[in-house]
Amino acid sequence: MNPNKIPQTDSIHELAQFWDTHDLTDFEEQMEEVPAPIFEREKVVQVHLPTKDADAVESMAQSQGMNPGDLIRAWIMEKVQPSS
């Protein structure tokens, strides 16, 4: 990576590492205003389930090769996205 150029990446982790070791004022001439958000934001929602239901979700997710959070997210997206 050229130390005199801002990295061109979509990785928040890479950008954070870069800015942890560089000063923004050294790169003002490379900056440009961006009218729209670059990174899609997510909101965390907690759902409390009885143990037997949580165990059932974990079992279903494992049988599909998924983690429980991804399975629940898929179920929710099926319900909230409009039918095509």
Structural account:
The chain is mainly α. The chain has 2 domains: 1-40, no CATH class; 42-84. It contains 3 helices and no strands. It is elongated and about 55 Å long. The chain starts with 11 loop residues before the first helix and ends with a helix. The model has no long low-confidence stretch (mean pLDDT 88).
Concise synopsis of the structure shown:
By secondary structure, the chain is mainly alpha-helical.
Parts with pLDDT < 50 across at least 5 consecutive residues: none
Order of helices and strands: HHH
Number of helices: 3
Number of domains: 2
Rg, alpha carbons: 21 Å
Our estimate of the beta-strand percent is under 5%
Structural class: mainly alpha
C-alpha termini separation:
44 Å
**Mean pLDDT value:** 88
Largest sheet: number of strands, sense, barrel closure: none
* Shape, per Cα inertia axes: elongated
Q: Please count the beta strands (DSSP E, at least 2 residues each).
A: 0
Helix content: 40-55%
Topology, pairings included?
Layout: H1 12-20, H2 51-63, H3 68-80
Keywords:
84 residues, 3 helices, 42% helix
